[in-house]
Amino acid sequence: FSMRDIDRMGIQRVMEVTLDHLLARKQRPIHLSFDIDAFDPSLAPATGTPVNGGLTYREGIYVTEEIHNTGLLSVMDVVEVNPTLGATPEAVEATTSLAVDVIASALGQTREGAHVAFPKIPEPKEDTELRL
What we know:
Mean pLDDT: 88
Organism: Hypophthalmichthys nobilis
InterPro entries: Ureohydrolase (IPR006035), Ureohydrolase_dom_sf (IPR023696), Ureohydrolase_Mn_BS (IPR020855)
Oligomer: single chain
GO molecular function, one term: manganese ion binding
Keywords: Hydrolase, Metal-binding
Family: Belongs to the arginase family.
Strand content: 5-15%
Number of strands: 4
CATH topology: Arginase, Chain A
């Protein structure tokens, strides 16, 4: 799919069609090769082929979340991260941090805002007392 398709259909529909196609025949292991320059260069500037108008952070993470949700991810690589091409240390940090987020998401980490999402709110232990 192209960015035009993502703009037109939305990332959710693109992933539905993609996974329907991949999983239609058999539940086979998935090898995900994630090209970091699929992201907009404002997010991943330290890469060899930056192209304006790439994926947003949320779109890219949605892709890896959906791959994780299949339970079929067996191999993953993240390519085109090139710290030598970062114009500043901040550009390198932004790109490498984004790559870590992509990997963590593919392995099941979910985020909501600035905190890690839990399936349910942890309950306090009974022996815990509130002391003032």
